[in-house]
Write a structure and sequence with these properties.
- By secondary structure, this protein is mainly α.
- It has one domain.
- The chain has eight helices and two strands.
- A two-stranded antiparallel ribbon has the order 1-2.
- The chain is globular and about 45 Å long.
Length: 137
Protein backbone atom coordinates (compact mmCIF):
# COMPACT_ATOMS: atom_id res chain seq x y z
CA UNK A 1 0.00 0.00 0.00
CA UNK A 2 1.35 3.40 -1.03
CA UNK A 3 1.30 5.99 1.74
CA UNK A 4 2.27 8.97 -0.41
CA UNK A 5 0.52 10.37 -3.44
CA UNK A 6 2.52 10.47 -6.66
CA UNK A 7 2.91 14.24 -6.27
CA UNK A 8 4.14 13.91 -2.67
CA UNK A 9 6.59 11.25 -3.84
CA UNK A 10 7.93 13.50 -6.61
CA UNK A 11 8.36 16.47 -4.26
CA UNK A 12 9.43 14.61 -1.13
CA UNK A 13 11.68 11.95 -2.62
CA UNK A 14 12.64 12.46 -6.26
CA UNK A 15 13.15 16.23 -6.25
CA UNK A 16 14.42 16.36 -2.67
CA UNK A 17 17.57 14.67 -3.96
CA UNK A 18 18.18 17.43 -6.53
CA UNK A 19 19.95 20.64 -5.50
CA UNK A 20 18.35 24.04 -6.13
CA UNK A 21 15.12 25.16 -7.75
CA UNK A 22 16.83 25.57 -11.11
CA UNK A 23 18.39 22.13 -10.75
CA UNK A 24 14.98 20.65 -9.99
CA UNK A 25 13.40 22.38 -13.00
CA UNK A 26 16.24 21.18 -15.20
CA UNK A 27 15.85 17.62 -13.89
CA UNK A 28 12.08 17.45 -14.40
CA UNK A 29 12.33 18.93 -17.88
CA UNK A 30 14.81 16.19 -18.82
CA UNK A 31 12.21 13.58 -17.87
CA UNK A 32 9.81 14.93 -20.50
CA UNK A 33 9.47 13.19 -23.85
CA UNK A 34 7.07 13.76 -26.74
CA UNK A 35 4.59 11.29 -25.28
CA UNK A 36 4.88 12.61 -21.70
CA UNK A 37 7.20 12.25 -18.76
CA UNK A 38 9.32 9.17 -18.23
CA UNK A 39 10.11 8.06 -14.68
CA UNK A 40 10.07 4.29 -14.42
CA UNK A 41 10.11 4.04 -10.62
CA UNK A 42 7.34 6.59 -10.07
CA UNK A 43 5.14 4.95 -12.73
CA UNK A 44 5.77 1.51 -11.24
CA UNK A 45 4.76 2.60 -7.74
CA UNK A 46 1.86 4.93 -8.55
CA UNK A 47 0.79 4.01 -12.07
CA UNK A 48 1.46 5.78 -15.35
CA UNK A 49 -1.31 8.38 -15.23
CA UNK A 50 -0.70 9.58 -11.63
CA UNK A 51 3.06 9.72 -12.34
CA UNK A 52 2.44 11.82 -15.47
CA UNK A 53 0.16 14.22 -13.61
CA UNK A 54 2.55 14.56 -10.66
CA UNK A 55 5.56 15.27 -12.86
CA UNK A 56 3.62 17.76 -14.99
CA UNK A 57 2.35 19.56 -11.88
CA UNK A 58 5.80 19.70 -10.28
CA UNK A 59 7.26 21.00 -13.57
CA UNK A 60 4.62 23.74 -13.74
CA UNK A 61 5.11 24.74 -10.09
CA UNK A 62 8.91 24.88 -10.39
CA UNK A 63 8.60 27.03 -13.52
CA UNK A 64 6.27 29.47 -11.75
CA UNK A 65 8.47 29.52 -8.64
CA UNK A 66 11.48 30.42 -10.76
CA UNK A 67 9.56 33.29 -12.40
CA UNK A 68 8.62 34.66 -8.96
CA UNK A 69 12.10 34.43 -7.45
CA UNK A 70 14.33 37.53 -7.35
CA UNK A 71 17.33 37.40 -9.69
CA UNK A 72 19.75 37.71 -6.77
CA UNK A 73 18.35 34.51 -5.30
CA UNK A 74 18.35 32.79 -8.68
CA UNK A 75 22.00 33.70 -9.21
CA UNK A 76 22.81 31.93 -5.94
CA UNK A 77 20.59 29.04 -7.03
CA UNK A 78 22.63 28.69 -10.24
CA UNK A 79 25.76 28.39 -8.09
CA UNK A 80 24.17 25.71 -5.90
CA UNK A 81 22.53 23.82 -8.76
CA UNK A 82 25.68 23.80 -10.89
CA UNK A 83 27.79 22.69 -7.93
CA UNK A 84 25.45 19.73 -7.41
CA UNK A 85 26.14 18.72 -11.03
CA UNK A 86 29.85 19.55 -10.75
CA UNK A 87 29.56 22.08 -13.60
CA UNK A 88 30.91 25.62 -13.89
CA UNK A 89 28.07 28.08 -12.97
CA UNK A 90 28.74 30.24 -16.04
CA UNK A 91 28.50 27.24 -18.39
CA UNK A 92 25.43 25.92 -16.59
CA UNK A 93 23.58 29.26 -16.85
CA UNK A 94 24.50 29.57 -20.52
CA UNK A 95 23.31 26.02 -21.23
CA UNK A 96 20.03 26.76 -19.49
CA UNK A 97 19.62 29.91 -21.58
CA UNK A 98 20.23 27.97 -24.80
CA UNK A 99 17.75 25.27 -23.77
CA UNK A 100 15.02 27.59 -22.49
CA UNK A 101 12.35 26.11 -24.81
CA UNK A 102 13.06 22.57 -23.55
CA UNK A 103 12.80 23.71 -19.93
CA UNK A 104 9.25 25.01 -20.37
CA UNK A 105 6.43 22.88 -18.96
CA UNK A 106 3.54 21.97 -21.29
CA UNK A 107 1.20 24.04 -19.08
CA UNK A 108 2.73 27.43 -18.28
CA UNK A 109 0.16 28.01 -15.53
CA UNK A 110 -0.14 31.71 -16.38
CA UNK A 111 3.61 32.19 -16.69
CA UNK A 112 5.24 33.48 -19.84
CA UNK A 113 7.84 31.84 -22.06
CA UNK A 114 9.16 35.30 -22.88
CA UNK A 115 9.57 36.18 -19.18
CA UNK A 116 11.31 32.85 -18.61
CA UNK A 117 13.69 33.45 -21.50
CA UNK A 118 14.49 36.92 -20.12
CA UNK A 119 15.23 35.50 -16.67
CA UNK A 120 17.60 32.90 -18.12
CA UNK A 121 19.30 35.55 -20.24
CA UNK A 122 19.78 37.75 -17.17
CA UNK A 123 21.15 34.82 -15.15
CA UNK A 124 23.62 33.99 -17.88
CA UNK A 125 24.80 37.62 -17.96
CA UNK A 126 24.98 37.83 -14.16
CA UNK A 127 27.09 34.71 -13.81
CA UNK A 128 29.48 36.01 -16.48
CA UNK A 129 29.75 39.43 -14.84
CA UNK A 130 30.27 37.88 -11.40
CA UNK A 131 33.27 35.95 -12.66
CA UNK A 132 34.75 39.06 -14.27
CA UNK A 133 34.00 41.39 -11.36
CA UNK A 134 37.02 42.77 -9.56
CA UNK A 135 37.16 42.28 -5.79
CA UNK A 136 36.43 45.35 -3.73
CA UNK A 137 39.16 46.76 -1.53
Amino acid sequence: MTLKSAFEDVIGTTLAAVTGTIGKLDYVSRLRRREGYSHWGLARVHGEEPAQKALAESHRLLFLKLLRTPLRDLREDVEVSSEGLQVNPEEYAENLRRQSAELLPPDLGGGSARHFSSVLQALSSLTKSRRHATPRA
